[in-house]
Automatic annotation (TrEMBL):
The keyword Kinase applies. This is Thymidylate kinase. Keywords: Kinase, Transferase. It comes from Anaeramoeba ignava (Anaerobic marine amoeba). Residues 4-166 form the Deoxynucleoside kinase domain.
């Protein structure tokens, strides 16, 4: 089981990419797959972010367990999920979030070793001025998003600085490319680690798919 987590600031295109993957037959994970209760604490308090991280990992383990019998029946099936954000988001958004980085890193390694669940992070990087322009355009349509500090240039600078410096597994740019091209680049970038062959009929261009068993950069078609 593989989980590809798309990371990046507001306006980087994560939600649009998740939708594109969903339309191509991939199962997706968003906030809806978590059973998070509401409390009086601020959702970005350290306590609530730790609760969110725990819920995220618990939900993933439940999915892995429920898929176990199906994987035994179909051992060739390589299940892939696309997630909007990863637990590492809490490192930035939680108060005192820096305390969580090594904990999350250890949890991911533990789950991979003991439950055969591979978690990959992909930073969707957008040139800063273009990102600011996209955010301003979105605020015209969704002005309520200003409560997330999306109208603050200072907040943007701080957020981009965090994402640029963080150690993500992969980085894929989303500047002037079409969303389908960006999706293809994600597939191409991870094709040495993730087997996309079970999805080749639903992906727009199978030339992006490389079989992990192939050598010398041979492209799977």
């Amino acid at each position: 089981m593989n989980i590809i987590c798309l990371e990046g600031p507001h306006g980087s295109g994560k939600s649009t990419l998740v939708k594109q993957f969903q339309e191509s037959g991939f199962e997706t994970l968003d906030e809806g797959f978590l059973d998070m209760k509401e409390y009086s604490l601020h959702p970005q308090s350290l306590t609530m972010e730790v609760a969110w991280i725990s819920s995220w990992f618990q939900s993933v383990l439940k999915m892995a367990h429920s898929m176990k019998d199906n994987l035994q029946e179909k051992p060739s099936l390589e299940k892939i999920f696309i997630a909007d954000r990863s637990p590492y988001s809490a490192v930035y958004y939680a108060s005192s979030g820096y305390l969580l980085k090594e904990l999350i890193k250890t949890q991911i390694a533990e789950i991979q070793e003991l439950s055969n669940v591979n978690i990959f992070t992909v930073y969707i990087k957008v040139e800063k001025e273009l990102l600011w322009k996209r955010i301003q355009e979105r605020l015209k349509v969704e002005p309520e998003r200003i409560k997330y500090n999306e109208g603050s240039r200072e907040w943007l600078e701080k957020t981009v600085n965090f994402y640029d410096k963080f150690e993500w597994d992969y980085v894929v740019e989303n500047n002037e490319q079409t969303i389908n091209v960006v999706k293809g680049e994600i597939i191409k970038t991870l094709s040495d680690q993730v087997d996309f062959q079970d999805y080749q009929e639903t992906i727009f261009d199978s030339s992006f798919i490389r079989s992990p068993s192939e050598k010398d950069n041979k492209i799977f078609v």
